[in-house]
Automatic annotation (TrEMBL), chain A:
Keyword field: Cell membrane, Membrane, Transmembrane, Transmembrane helix
Na+/H+ antiporter MnhB subunit-related protein domain mapped to chain residues: 5-127
Membrane-topology descriptor: Multi-pass membrane protein
InterPro entries the UniProt entry points to: CPA3_antiporter_subunitB (IPR050622), MnhB (IPR007182)
GO cellular component, one term: plasma membrane
Top-rank lineage group of the source organism: Bacteria
Family (UniProt): Belongs to the CPA3 antiporters (TC 2.A.63) subunit B family.
Protein name: Monovalent cation/H+ antiporter subunit B
Species of provenance: Nitratireductor indicus C115
Pfam families hit by this protein: MnhB (PF04039)
Major site of localization recorded for this protein: membrane
Transmembrane portions of the chain: 12-29, 35-55, 67-91, 111-133
Automatic annotation (TrEMBL), chain B:
Name of the protein this chain belongs to: Monovalent cation/H+ antiporter subunit D
Signal peptide coordinates: none
Any one of the GO BP annotations: ATP synthesis coupled electron transport
GO MF annotation: an example: NADH dehydrogenase (ubiquinone) activity
Transmembrane domains' residue ranges: 22-41, 48-67, 87-114, 126-145, 151-169, 181-203, 223-248, 260-284, 290-311, 318-336, 348-366, 387-405, 425-448, 469-488
Record InterPro entries: CPA3_Na-H_Antiporter_D, NADH_UbQ_OxRdtase, ND/Mrp_TM
GO cellular component labels: plasma membrane
Native organism taxonomy: Bacteria, Pseudomonadati, Pseudomonadota, Alphaproteobacteria, Hyphomicrobiales
One Pfam family linked to the record: Proton_antipo_M
PANTHER family: NA(+)_H(+) ANTIPORTER SUBUNIT D1, NADH DEHYDROGENASE
TrEMBL record, chain C:
Pfam families linked: Oxidored_q2
Keywords, alphabetical: Cell membrane, Membrane, Transmembrane, Transmembrane helix
Family recorded in the similarity comment: Belongs to the CPA3 antiporters (TC 2.A.63) subunit C family.
Name the record gives this protein: Monovalent cation/H+ antiporter subunit C
Compartments in which it is found: Cell membrane
Protein's membrane topology: Multi-pass membrane protein
Keyword match Metal-binding: no
Matching PANTHER family: ANTIPORTER SUBUNIT MNHC2-RELATED
Domain of life of the source: Bacteria
Length: 139, 520, 125
């Protein structure tokens, strides 16, 4: 699979897919999309990069170990639920607030952080499975 | 947001939730947080053990708090995300769930302590402790959730984590065992999902309290019997009941001994718990119809399980069959369905969690001392360490159901209950199982502890084995509750009675989930 | 519509069970994948099928004014898909490893954990 064309295109394709995955993640609150599908898109992006350029460049590019990313996502999702304890509402209640970014109002919620957590869990675990399979194929 | 203009009190919990209610969710949410942190620091293997033991101790403390609250004030409820039940996912802790969650966490804490020695740096880097925490989150969630689809999700959480634990080390034996374990457990949980799909189609709700209160009106309309049979098959598979138990002896002897101790102690009991919860609380009439089948399954599981144990020459494989036999004894109470029978089953579950874990850890310590699990070679342990002989005697007596250890009282209750219910052959099966267990484990005891090999062979092996201090400490930690349950059983019997009563008369459980008695 | 779908459910289950009865792990895995889909289709069918009206309550009302689609079965299916997907990914890796290490995907040949002809335990001492 390591043809010249594929190797040249893969970094651009990967970055485009990761960007798109973040778009899908963030639009997920009111439209089709969300953490799981976004995470799958990002994981397939890393898998493509792995097929084109080998596994170790992917690991270097990710910097953190995929399972550590997964763990961070799980922590983020759980803490988004735990935040409710300070507002005297049950676990996993959606809490909303508005902040202003460059003069535009932006809704921030625990639901979003939970979804980002899901995204990271999916990216981490699926990438680690994909890389493990690719490593074995080449090595 | 426009939501502020709508009156939310029709759909949402509006009263503030005191922090004390968080005890219901804490036994699940704390292991998830700690497991996530452990996953992030996977390569700092020196931190793992202390972080894990600390996390489990905090979880244990919340479990104690939860159980004492449940025993004082009845079932405790928290519904996720403020949605009113049955729309929100409810966590409902009654005496059965809270007490089993407590015992399971206690056992997991002891295993975490033992694992310091058993799991070396490679295993830790591979993720022993994170998987263990995710498994405990799944087990805690299964015991405490009040929603049947949520129960399915927690099942999958602990089953997937248990795969990770099972193949830790990736030897050939483990890959072989794990393949069979994984596929058969997947089929079992999928059956559970099928049953849940039909249940949703019939009731239109997944909240267990809601199902329990609607079940009487549905009795003759829906295919309730099909549901009950499907659940019996699905949970029976998870609990390793007789015709569908072959995944257990194929896999439980392959992983590290501490993993096997966790599995043997906790996982089958989750299946038994789910059987109790679903068949006794949700489908009592159908359970009564099925009681003949369940009684035969129970008798076959306990007797054939222990007969299997007699024929094994690997110590760990003996234990796998002993676990199965214990499941059969617990199913006997389910078959009877009376207050006394269920009390016996629940008390046996407490005993079984403690004693099976202790038995596996005992095998681990024996292996450390003698260097093998084979009954042909393992011998002369009394000479090496009289302490292990004493601890082994206590644990063997407990598993065989003899005084002064914990196995006696639940068997007494079950035997009496089955005679009262007019099923003397079932009580005969329980007593026969006790006899065969005594033979099987007594043989193990004689061979490993008392038998002396030729002095020439003995000298080479016995040269310098370090005393397994951590192993002794963990065994003593389990031996204390085992002995306590045998010598002073009243408080435990009372907890088990409360739990059994809560299953048969589910009005307290329903009332806790729907405080206003409001119509859906 | 329900009748057609239940017919498909039956075909899915039949195919899945047929494949799972095979001796080869890879066929069993294919069967398991189809089994999961059969269950998802079951959930979809038992959740009652109605026209695709999104279940959104109009403002100033307490309940929806028409019959809407039931969102719960879809949520259940989504959860079940996620779970069976991760399960399947894991099983695939496991089966691949087992095939590499044990050199067979025939379940009758996989006797490493429970070897044939093991000796009986010592009968005396």
């Amino acid at each position: 699979m390591r043809t010249l064309i594929f190797r040249t295109i893969a970094p651009y394709l990967t970055s485009l897919m990761v960007l798109f995955s973040i778009f899908v993640l963030l639009r997920g609150h009111n439209d089709p999309g969300g953490g799981f599908i976004g995470g799958l898109i990002a994981a397939s992006a890393f898998a493509i990069y792995g097929i084109a350029c080998g596994v170790s460049p992917v690991r270097r590019a990710l910097y953190f170990h995929p399972m550590a990313i997964s763990g961070f996502g799980l922590l983020l999702a759980a803490l988004a639920g735990w935040l409710s304890i300070f507002f005297q509402v049950p676990f996993m209640t959606g809490l909303w607030t508005k902040i202003s970014v460059l003069g535009l109002p932006v809704d921030i919620s625990t639901v979003m952080f939970f979804d980002i957590g899901v995204y990271l869990v999916v990216v981490g675990s699926i990438t680690s499975i994909a890389l493990a399979l690719e490593e074995r194929e080449h090595g | 947001m426009a939501a502020e203009t709508v009156d939310l009190s029709h759909a949402m919990v509006t009263a503030p939730v005191p922090a004390g209610d968080w005890l219901v969710i804490a036994p699940v949410a704390i292991p998830i947080v700690v497991g996530a942190i452990l996953l992030m620091v996977r390569h700092e293997t020196r931190l793992h053990a202390s972080l894990a033991i600390g996390g489990l101790l905090v979880t244990l403390a919340t479990n104690v708090g939860l159980l004492s609250r449940v025993l004082a004030d009845g079932p405790q409820v928290m519904t996720m995300g403020r949605w009113l039940p049955p729309f929100g996912i409810t966590f409902a802790a009654d005496a059965l769930g809270a007490s089993l969650a407590l015992v399971a966490t206690l056992v997991a804490t002891v295993c975490a302590i033992y694992a310091q020695k058993d799991i070396e740096a490679t295993g830790r880097r591979y993720g022993f402790y994170p998987f263990m925490f995710l498994m405990m989150a799944g087990v805690g969630g299964s015991f405490l959730t009040g929603d049947i689809f949520n129960l399915y999700v927690w099942f999958e959480v602990f089953v997937i984590s248990s795969f990770g634990l099972l193949i830790l080390g990736s030897t050939h034996r483990q890959l072989d065992g794990a393949t069979k374990y994984a596929i058969l457990n997947l089929v079992g949980t999928t059956l559970f999902l099928i049953a849940t799909a039909y249940l949703y189609g019939i009731f239109g709700t997944l909240n267990m309290a809601d199902i329990a209160r609607k079940a009487d009106a549905m009795r003759d309309t829906g295919p309730m019997m099909t549901l009950a049979v499907l659940y019996l098959l699905a949970f029976g598979m998870k609990a390793a009941a007789f015709p569908v138990n072959f995944w257990l002896p194929a896999s439980y002897h392959t992983p590290r001994i501490v993993t096997a101790a966790l599995f043997g102690g906790i996982l089958t009991k989750v299946g038994v718990y789910s059987l109790l919860r679903v068949l006794v609380m949700l489908f009592p009439v159908e359970r009564a119809e099925l009681s003949g089948v369940i009684a035969w399954v129970a008798a076959a599981t306990m007797v054939l399980g222990i007969v299997g144990a007699l024929a094994q020459s690997d110590l760990r494989r003996v234990l796998g069959f002993v676990v199965i036999s214990g499941v059969g004894v617990m199913l006997a109470g389910l078959a009877l369905g009376t207050q006394e029978g269920l009390t016996g089953t629940i008390l046996y579950a407490f005993h079984s969690v403690l004693a099976m874990t202790a038995l596996y850890l005992l095998a681990g310590v024996m292996n450390e001392l003698g260097g093998t699990y084979s009954l042909h070679d393992l011998s002369g342990l009394y000479r090496k360490s009289p302490l292990i002989a004493a601890l082994a005697l206590l644990i063997v007596l407990a598993v065989a159901g003899l005084p002064p250890a914990s196995g006696l009282w639940p068997k007494v209750l079950l035997v009496r209950a089955s005679i009262d219910a007019g099923l003397p052959w079932l009580s005969f099966a329980i007593l026969l199982t006790g006899l065969l267990t005594t033979i099987a484990l007594g043989k193990v005891y004689i061979l490993t502890i008392w038998r002396q090999k030729e002095p020439a062979e003995e000298g080479a092996a016995a040269a310098s084995v370090p005393m397994p201090g951590v192993g002794y400490a963990s065994l003593i930690m389990l031996a204390v509750p085992v002995l306590l349950l045998g010598l002073y059983p009243e408080p435990f019997i009372r907890i088990a009675e409360t739990a059994a009563d809560g299953l048969i008369n589910s009005s307290a459980y329903i009332g806790a989930v729907f405080p206003a008695g409001g119509q859906p | 519509m329900e009748a057609v779908l239940s017919f498909f459910v039956a075909i899915f289950f039949a195919v899945a069970i047929y494949l799972m009865l095979s001796k080869h792990i890879i066929r069993i895995l294919l069967g398991v994948a189809i089994f999961g889909n059969a269950v998802n289709l079951t959930i979809f069918t038992v959740g009652r099928i109605v026209r695709e009206v999104p279940p959104i309550i109009p403002e100033a009302l307490q309940t929806p004014d028409t019959i809407t689609a039931n969102p719960l079965p879809q949520a259940l299916i989504l959860t079940a898909i996620v779970i069976s997907f991760s399960f399947f990914a894991f099983l695939l890796v496991l089966a691949f490893r087992a095939y590499q290490e044990l050199g067979t995907d025939d379940t009758e040949g996989m006797r490493v954990a429970e070897p044939e002809g093991e000796p009986l335990p010592p009968l005396g001492y």
